[in-house]
Amino acid sequence: MAISLLPIPFISLRTKISFNLSPKIFSRRQSCSSSSDGSTGNRQVSLNSEKRPFAVATGDMFIGLASRLLKRSNQRTPPSDDGDRIGTVIEDEIDPAMIWEQRVKDVEAEKERRIITSPGFSFSAAGLLFPYHLGVAQLLIEKGYIKDTTPLAGASAGAVVCAVITSGSSMWEALEATKVLANDCRRNGTAFRLGAVLRESMEKLLPDDIHIRSNGRVRVAITQVFWKPRGLLVDQFDSKSDLINAVFTSSFIPGYLAPRPVTMFRNRVCVDGGLTLFMPPTAAAKTVRVCAFSASSFKLKGIGISPDCNPLNRATARQLLKWALEPAEDEVLEKLFELGYADAATWSEMNPVEDLVCDDTSAAQAIQAS
């Protein structure tokens, strides 16, 4: 099925697929962003605790079990060197109970970026809704919102798309790789083996110097398991394998990617980054957050681009959650790509690139130094 990216923001859904779209119509300007451009400062966005995806609820259970085991053993592996020490601890502005951390190496890697373009773009956890993010990224790259100097951040599937953008691979190529992954999971199963299939796909798609391209630019969100979960933002990578391990860890839904409750990353016990940093802040002074789920349905704040941008073309929350956890057919993956492209196009109409994108090196460095 050929993908048709229409120049207008709305895409016809007259296909064999039934999306059960909501008849309720929202104002595009109100639903597409909470501010004029949908950007925020370095703030954290949190899920409403009463409406959490199944994977998040399962993750909380595994985190609790892992924390009890860690507390009982009372053992923590010391950092391998001074660069692995935590260099920055920031309290979340929206949810003060949530904090995120950066190692000394990660802080230094960001300071080495000579030019930073604002706004940065942060991509949410999305599971197998990954093609939606690819469609958004395609529009943002085409229109000049995302440049080589644009900071990126992501959790889980959002971290994967950040790596793809930085790699220089086309979003079409990544979509085809997603189809191969989904077909493998449909034939052989998803639970407990998705991690191995994902790792193999990244090995094939990403170039050998992906870690060099990503250093100081891409923040990968990971959830550390201590006595309570803490978010860790990683954007300094030693090798291609190290970056893939970071993205794999960010995508590690407990008991889903592999038959174990937690995984290890740089001597830290970790799980999916989306459990604490659903849309992590970027290194830019302003961040536009991209969410593959309906911001209004999940009561998320500060979202710039989401299915709410085109409410008529929006699948139900139940359908999105199903596709996030189980691989959809190729035509659905293609439609998700188109919907992401359309939602980004709607957002761009209200936020012209010439009014929004600018060199923000000094402002970003001031934040890093504070």
UniProtKB/TrEMBL annotation:
Gene3D superfamilies hit by this protein: Cytosolic phospholipase A2 catalytic domain
Domain of life: Eukaryota
Motif GXSXG in this chain: 154-158
EC number per UniProt: 3.1.1.-
Active site: S156, D272
Keyword match Hydrolase: yes
Class in the EC hierarchy, top level: hydrolase
PNPLA domain residues: 121-286
Gene Ontology terms, MF aspect: hydrolase activity
Motif (DGA/G): 272-274
Pfam name, any one: Patatin
Swiss-Prot/TrEMBL keywords: Hydrolase, Lipid degradation, Lipid metabolism
Alphabetical GO biological process terms: lipid catabolic process
Protein family: Belongs to the patatin family.
Domain comment, as recorded: The nitrogen atoms of the two glycine residues in the GGXR motif define the oxyanion hole, and stabilize the oxyanion that forms during the nucleophilic attack by the catalytic serine during substrate cleavage.
Task of the protein: Lipolytic acyl hydrolase (LAH).
Name of the protein in its database record: Patatin
Organism this protein belongs to: Eruca vesicaria subsp. sativa (Garden rocket)
